[in-house]
Amino acid sequence: MVARGLEPEFPAEALAEAQRIEAPSAPYGADVRDLRNLPWCSIDNDDSRDLDQLTVAVPISGGGTRILVAVADVSASVTAGSAVDAHARVNTTSIYTVPQHFPMLPERLSTDLTSLGQQEDRMAIVVELVGDVGSGGTSSVSRGVVRNQAKLAYSSVGAWLEGRGEMPPAIGTVAGLAENLRLQDREAQRLKTRRHELGALELETLEAHARFDGDDLSGLVVEERNRAKEIIEDFMIAANGVIARFLAEHRFPVMRRVVRAPARWQRIVDLAAHYDDKLPPAPDATALHDFLARRRAADPLRFPDLSLSVIKLLGRGEYEASFPGQEVKGHFGLAVSDYTHSTAPNRRYPDLITQRLVKAALAGKDVPYGRKPLEALAAHCTQKEDDAEKVERLLRKAAAACLLSDRIGDEFDGIVTGASPKGTWARTFEPPVEGRIEQGAAGLDVGDRVRLKLLHTDAERGFIDFARIGADAKTKRPS
């Protein structure tokens, strides 16, 4: 972390400042709605304590549903220029490594005062939408006071919604919550279907997380996608779109999340041709979505491998500050032009910046950031996100190297995940670990299937080295 300009520890001044901060009072009134009576709930990882958002769905008399997303009002406690803000501005994100988490904000804030904890009254930014915003639907943004009625986890809620498990006990303790979650599930599926009709990509990857037995690393667990995750994913995508449009309508700048049309589109075309499918010569999100849907139906078991290849070829997302009158760049993968990050201000600094912009617009105040500072922050947040992801990836590789250390010489099937002048990388199917192809990499490209032999592991440096079986190559890792 230090080598990449990240701060592993909070400065003493920031910790002292956090201890002095008190929970903001709830000023009920014309501009702050009291929404505590709604059956709000949080759905997150089993061990999450930094709860950024709550969700609820409210039936409308005569038909239809209102979706409400409450986002923790972090900016009320973390003011620009404060010591806590200065640290958050350096890292710009919480960093989740295998052995330890490094939160962006001190835990007194992120897991307490600015977390939407169960049965706690908390200030929030509330996004409300009805129908399909942008095509006849309506939306609003306001301040509110909310109360989390149930802290829930993806795994158990997803299993219940999909009929694979019992209803989590916490749901049964809140009147009407079971019905509300089923309504949220239906609305999330409707939003997802509508996004895909517009060309949003439906991708699925395998995320492997380290499992510990006490202090000993015992294995890798693949985290599966489920309906509970889709509720949060689809509601947050919708809420982020509402926030971007809200700021634009108020003639405020927007810290947009941008994924440009892929520079390596031709390689995606080649991948489709490998499956006897055809994509147009120019980047086309709708055509790519349709191709991916066909492949998911034809081979659901291997679809995550194809998804991984496409994700690598799409390229990274980045933050970009846009201003009134300026041409807007969109998010290729989501098939939207208006998109920002606003729903995780405890964990991401761009979301905290966006929240400050939203609150200023709601209060009729001036824009709190100048053009050049906001452009510089966008570039800085993009760079630090990249740095943080490299740290997280290194630790994941270190964990995988530990687990494979006694399997030197074993053979694995895999798929190429990266190919550049710096080297060629592949991910094995079982276990799902990524390493560098040190021998036989010539001619390989992203998406190619390979048979690999494990040559070497180095947990301290996160090295996993393979040889491509059936190829004669003599490349070596630089010393």
The portion of residues assigned to helices is 25-40%
Order of helices and strands: HEEEEHEEHEEEHHHEEHEHHHEHHEEEEE
How confident overall, as mean pLDDT? 89
The secondary-structure class comes to: alpha+beta
Largest sheet: 5 strands, mixed
pLDDT below 50 for ≥5 consecutive residues: which ranges? 473-479
Total helical segments: 12
- Count of domains: 3
Summarize the SSE layout with pairings.
Layout: H1 12-20, E1 32-34, E2 41-44, E3 53-59, E4 65-72, H2 83-91, E5 95-96, E6 101-102, H3 107-113, E7 121-130, E8 138-147, E9 150-153, H4 154-161, H5 169-172, H6 177-197, E10 207-213, E11 216-223, H7 227-249, E12 254-258, H8 265-274, H9 285-298, H10 303-314, E13 318-322, H11 349-363, H12 371-404, E14 411-420, E15 423-428, E16 434-439, E17 449-458, E18 463-468
Parallel strand pairs: 1-8, 2-9, 16-18
Antiparallel strand pairs: 3-4, 4-7, 5-6, 7-8, 10-11, 12-13, 14-15, 14-17, 15-16, 17-18
Protein model, in words:
By secondary structure, the protein is of the alpha+beta class. It has three domains: 2-245, no CATH class; 265-314, no CATH class; 405-468, OB fold (Dihydrolipoamide Acetyltransferase, E2P). It has helices at 12-20, 83-91, 107-113, 154-161, 169-172, 177-197, 227-249, 265-274, 285-298, 303-314, 349-363, 371-404; strands at residues 32-34, 41-44, 53-59, 65-72, 95-96, 101-102, 121-130, 138-147, 150-153, 207-213, 216-223, 254-258, 318-322, 411-420, 423-428, 434-439, 449-458, 463-468. The strands form six sheets. A five-stranded mixed beta sheet has the order 1-8-7-4-3. Helix 1 packs across helix 2 and helix 6 (177-197) crosses helix 7. It is globular.
